[in-house]
Request: fold
Amino acid sequence: MAVLSKEEAKQIIDKVLAFSKADEISAGLTGSRVGNIRYARNSVSTSGEATNLSLSVTSVYGKKSGTATINEFDDKSLEKTVRRAEEIAQLAPENPEYVPMLGPQNYLEVNSFAESTAAINPDFRAEAAFKSIDPCVKKGLTSAGYWEDRTGFSAMGNNKGLFGYNKATSVDFSITVRTNDGLGSGYAARDYNDVSKLDTALATEVAIQKAQASSKARALEPGKYTVILEPTAAVDLLQNMMGSMDARNADEGRSFLGKKGGGTRLGEKLFDERVNIYSDPQNLEIPGSPFGGGGGRFGGGGSDGRAQEKVVWVENGVVKNMYYSRYWAEKKGVKAIAPPSGFIFAGGTESLADLIKGTEKGILVTRLWYIRAVDPQTLLYTGLTRDGTFYIENGQIKYPVKNFRFNESPVIMLNNLEAAGKPMRASGNLIPPLKIRDFTFTSLSDAV
Amino acid sequence: MAGLGTGAMMLPGFASGRTVSPEALMEPWLDVAVKKRLADAALNAAKSKGATYADVRIGRYLNQFVITREDKVQNIVNTESYGVGIRVIANGCWGFAAVADAQSDAQIAKAAEDAVAIAKANSRLMKEPVELAPQKGFGEVSWKAPIKKNAFEVPVKEKVDLLLGVNDAAMKNGANYVNSVLFMVNEQKYFASTDGSYIDQDIHRMWPNFTVTAIDPASGKFQTRNSLSAPMGMGYDYLQTNPKDKVTGITTRYNMGYDMLEDITSAAQQAKMKLSAKSVEAGKYDLVLDPSHLWLTIHESVGHPLELDRVLGYEANFAGTSFATLDKWQSKSFKYGSDQVNLIADKTQVGSLGAVGWDDEGVNTKKWDLVKDGILVNYQAIRDQAKIIGEKESHGCCYADSWSSVQFQRMANVSLASGKTPLSVEEMIKDVKKGIYIIGDGSFSIDQQRYNFQFGGQLFYEIKDGKIAGMLKDVAYQSNTQEFWNSCVKVCDDRDYRLGGSFFDGKGQPSQSSAVSHGSSTARFNGVNVINTARKI
Reply:
């Protein structure tokens, strides 16, 4: 019942709209079934499943809006919710930045739903966990992992004729394997819409190899190094940068895209010319949401109903677009480009192994950890390497090295791009392994 | 994301629950007799299906957020979430199930049966049966946070007027932009267990805060200054200022009462001053750390590594493990810090975010030593961990962030004890030849075993030959936990003691958020490595 069909969702939304007495009304209906299994010390620690179906109604009088939410769907409850949203709206202060609701939109077809994922049950999860734990037990290693699968839908409609519906599935898996002496640790993470693409044993094998190879790490002096960031390491820094491309902050002069003397750096070449970043909700590897102002794979993040489309953010190193709220776009007289739900960093054809082979001296980074902004002006971030850091010499991994703390800006990093390999999916984005020169490590960490 | 979240980033997840009117937040909830009846339905159903232990949490969670920028109200959000979570042990294994909006015995009994079924299913993969530290039942008892004014009773208009008033003061004092927020939380929790406890608790939290931004258009540079308030386990009374709650000095800081108007006026001026402040020269400095800053260093480098579940490896895939391994504790000689360093865990401290009468598994709360005269002496443990460290009872620090989340070990308030010898901040600074005085929390990051950390701040003042020599910027310090706490040479006395804290300590998969306070007086750390964070892009 948690995942309604398009027709079932539309029927409820139409009923809600018919109860309205306000100037404007919109209804958002979301449902999901989320299951998880977590393990540590080679044993399951928690697992569970939760379903949710929820309706959110926003009523508007002039520039005053109010929202009420409910998870009961009989006519009486629906009407009560509409009345409550209207009462809250009438009591609310006027929002001078309110923009009237959108009319009908043309949404792209996205293929974000997989029957295989929707069919997952507790036994399936337990088996997936077993396939990850068992090889670790057999090799005398310790596993800790987490699996979460989601099946859900999102629908929205308003009294201006807008209606949208999308259903989606996803599965996220991460595994840390540690040697029992505590000196080695390896990590792998995978995410897909279609669970049939996920092999927990295969991902665990990667983590096992890294754990075994990372024991007895040597200390290198902190400083500037050529690094190869695996997609699981690069994604966090890139996501932080993409999350800072809001146009209003740039126009107001409080963003890395603000410019000396006022204005923004839109149209400026800010990165190496091989940097190309775009978003595409129809990409088959990372199918996104057809509507909404961003917010991930279920389209529930944005309530204004803007159609998602293909957007080029950075082309040949030049900033081509920023994203806007509808209010700010109207004020600036520009198209209200919505933030994306995932992005694609265009790469080449080289594999991670190829990049390693072509490196004279460098450091391979599996994962970055506890990344926090140090200076929003320059997008300087700090954080640490974790779960598999290795020294490369003459095209080969020579030995494990102790973890480093870095202080680096993705803007500087993407100016120091040496090579981008073949992209792979990481946290809902497509990211290539990146070879970067002069990456700044500022201290050593004893952590394994 | 693991670790401590930043306010704005964590807000969407935090504001879970249904959206309601502000008036609905004041509506009375279920009578305690009804809650007892529902709880008994859960406990009886669990026992009849074979559970050897069961607890039930019937929770109503209320949040209100008032969010403004400059002269505009951006959003007012009121949320309510109600439901029941049932945890059981069957076949020696934990099982958990939760049900939203449950009002009938039958709904709750069904959830209890589901929890038992999950426990039995998971017991096939179990290595060792769960063993709980003994806990006596307390019968029917209650606890209320000792607040003077319930923030939810204050009309929204009064809150909006307060924020727009402080925003106006910021703009008049040189700010280019200002964002301000009031966060208010009320947890109404009823706990019952097969040990014979029926515990009714009413918990309040409050956090007023802001960010002021100053811009220099000519250079394209901007600087911010965040509020020096702390999230507190208090009601609206936190905003009633009293001269005795103010610590005057180079800038005013606050104890149990916060003057938002005064702080934002200073903040606007200081944000402008930061634009032309001297960029720090990297090197070793003696650091004088104000409690509004030091709380975060305590949180990351003491609170987390001494969580027993991390030490044992239960967080290995996400939040990480800990350098403070059992052998170090067993040695009884591990020098966590200098002799000046006494670190205390406390779930009873009045006004703190972690204060409750009983934790989320029915254990009465307490206070205990973690580090005594510099030596590691204990961890934070709950009922199913107590025996691992030879404790006869739990420390009472089990928490779930919602009725729908399973409770697990969370951080108690962890604080640095004040120095025993009378010492003021001015006297402390007088002895420092080359140092930096840091006020307010800023950027923060620490590795997954809690060795290497880096912290920023809000305000940095250079100390030269015992005197404040002016404002600095681009400051961050890096150290190693054991090295840092062993470099602590002095802690000011109790007159300077204040609490800091966070609403958003993240841990677990799926991640749960917990609120926790950390107290200290100003402390001095010698020879800490300071880096310069300025870059050009």
